[in-house]
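quick one, 502 residues, struct below
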Amino acid sequence: MSADYSTMIYTTEQVRHGERAAAEALDISMAQLMQRAAQACLLAIRQQQPAPARVLVLCGPGNNGGDGWVLARLAQQQGYQVQVAAAEPQSPLAKDAAAAWHDLGQSSLALDTLEDHHFQAQDIVVDALLGSGLNRDLDGDIMRAVDLINQATKRYSNWVLSVDVPTGLNSDTGQPQPMAVESHHTVTMVAVKVGLVTGLAANYCGAIELADLGIAATFYKQQPSLRVIGSHCAEHQLSPRLKASHKGNLGHLLIIAGGPGMSGAAVLAGQAALRCGVGKVSVACHPQSQLAIAVQQPELMVHVVTDDLQPLLAKADVVVIGPGLGQSEWAHQLVSSVAKWHGPVVWDADALNRLAELTVTKPVESIWYMTPHPGEAARLLKTSTSEVNADRLAALTKLCQNFQAQILLKGAGTLVQSGSQRWVCRRGSPALASGGSGDVLSGIVGALIAQGVATDMVLPLAAWLHAVAGELAARDGERGTLASDIIAELRALVNPWQVIDK
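---
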């Protein structure tokens, strides 16, 4: 399996139509694809534990269940001790696969008779209940089986393999409906689906393995819905500096931040920008925050601003506004002023919340970059956080359209839309879930813009740098990692020709 294919992410509908079209073009039957899917899952099982390990295969009524029936037969032939618990097969392929299992003289349990004790004697549990395309909440025997798998895994330490998509996980949104199998390993067929790489998917999928089923050369001619951000973004965009470089040609970033009691946010954004190599950083802050910011980072040029931003805007190449800005009238005036500025603007945190309340039109000459978390995205879209999380890809697209902006939607599986291209970041760590992490990201974005990184690559590159820095900062443990620890890792990452973690 070429690693390149796993960087191309598709919707469920794209996979459904593309799989069938590719198979027909290659004169491969759906039954043959099912056989190949089962063989890929068997290989994953063999790599986890050799025969005669005990395997319980749970089969649903459709083609995903058919994969499970074929897998059971192949595993039995390879010397595994196999037991099957299944719903009544409904699709023709599932019926044929079940018949082939029973023709070997093997029996199966009815899914509605499955109990906790059936898991106790197992080494491996295979979830072949439901595949991709689930668009409603689980119920009945399938929901009960999912709950049994999850509870039994905690009690008996079974290794759980999901076929294509963990049952209960929406393959387009990454949301459980309302629960999903908590797998250790997912073998996904033909292409990686959007719902496996964003939303809450990381809590359910475990390691994701792609099995292209021998149709990759034809299937992957269609454009993906998302591309995975990789180290190539840094390698292509961050070239060595010219020997005669000076701070004047490395950009001047203005950070408008630091309301009363929130000087730390301005410091974190400023430090991140400096570590990413911007030439100069000015900070426009509230009078109460000036001293605290200045003493924490001497390289920052700190200015008190009451209401007139024009002198500072006139000198800036790019503006970041929002970290620790607050929601005071002082903050509101600054947001209104920046909304009229004709240069590139990074909108974050409190500035996004204020922007959501305004009726503004982006100046034609300006390029806006927005870095909302789901709550901020909800306010911008006049909806709820749960609605944003229910379909992060749709929220991303709507934000881009509504504000004519480049968008980075934070969260596990960060999504980016820049121009016509959409991206997902599969790097990162729970260590990033700490106060100030978003302020670091805004500083990274501003620094990249100021240094002339290509407009449509700023946010993908920023997402990657932030995520990988978070991973590196958590080497001694995710819990307790600080936003300032992330900053310390940026210097090496923005010099990729010297050292880079791929």
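The first strand starts at residue 8 and ends at 10.
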